[in-house]
Amino acid sequence: MRHTLTPLAVLASLALMACSQDAPAPADDDAAESMPESRSAEDPAPVEPAAEEAAGEDTAGEATATASIDIEEWEVPWDGRPRDPYTLDGQTVWFVGQQNSYIARLDVASGEMERIDLREGAGPHNLIVAPDGDVWYAGNRDAHIGRYDVETGEFEFIDTPAETARDPHTLVWDANGDIWFSSQQANSVGFLDVSERSVQILPVPTEGARPYGIKIAPDGTVWVALFGTYKLASINPQTMELTEHDLPREDSRPRRIGITSDGRIWYGDYNGGYLGVYDPQSASATEWEMPSGENARPYALAVDGQDRIWFVETGVDPNWFVGFDPASERFFSVTAVPSGGGVVRHMQYLPQTGEIWFGSDMGTIGRAQVE
User: Fold this and answer.
1) What is the pTM of this model?
2) How far is CA 155 from CA 93, 133, 136, 182, 251, in A?
3) pLDDT in tens, 101-131
4) Residues 6+ apart with CB under 8 A from 50
5) How many other C-beta atoms can be found within 10 angstroms of the C-beta atom of residue 157?
6) Of the N and C termini of the chain, which has fewer Cβ atoms inside 10 Å?
7) In this structure, are residues 266 and 275 in contact, taking their beta carbons and an 8 Å threshold?
């Protein structure tokens, strides 16, 4: 079944949000370990921002235009927290079932889905798709990276060192077709040479840094959000040197990141409700308070083809899909996720279609048309 929210429907949705009651924030397996600097996932979610704020009421009381976008969702017929969709063409979309250890594909035209079970206890956290169509996934609970051959239906398993990378978390391709990945609880960043099937692990110096979101900059530098700290990390892929970079506020907790074409690193502060950008050239950061402020709980984040930033506020119910334009420094779009979202954890932008794909804890795979 599909859920769709169009621009015509968003005003009604905002009105309902303004009248809704507080709801408990959704639980988060990824943050199960204590994070004393942040509010607990069990803390009550905040009151949703008023409809006039969502519609673009600025601090001077002058209304500003806030566009909405089309969002469509497909219900996944199996339990297991569907998440981290990835597509090469917008027609076949792969995703993982984190809690029930499967990968699955959605045929967008028909709405049909196919499930492929993984080995028991794999706990896939994320997947990416190679140009040849093969699917690579992070075996988060079983210390491996897996490859699924779509032609033969066979699996290949590449072990990651249990002592230094026991929980492969988020995978990302580099320009050479190799894979970089974070390991949150193991406190490391890994590199998989795909042709050699060899793994190299780089420990993060700060204890309990919790490497999380990971992206590759245009110059090839690897950037990682250190969710347990107020830092980002960068890795020079030539020297394998890892450098930590402090953000302005010690209570900030960057979770997911995106990189614009100018090489600046954008992050969502999950703890404080700020959208921030770090400039490696000046080693400085700038931040903007999100529409829901400290209640925002920003999680999934992506950059579109116009270098605009999209992120999801997961501390409000329904989750809000928000757009920010760096050129004007304005939050220009706010749209409620039709299913409610629960928690939207990770997103992929597809440049040839102008779509962002996401999974939600409400058991859906979603598509947001942002361009």
Assistant:
1) 0.86
2) 19, 14, 10, 22, 42
3) 999 999 999 999 999 999 999 999 999 999 9
4) 18
5) 14
6) N
7) yes
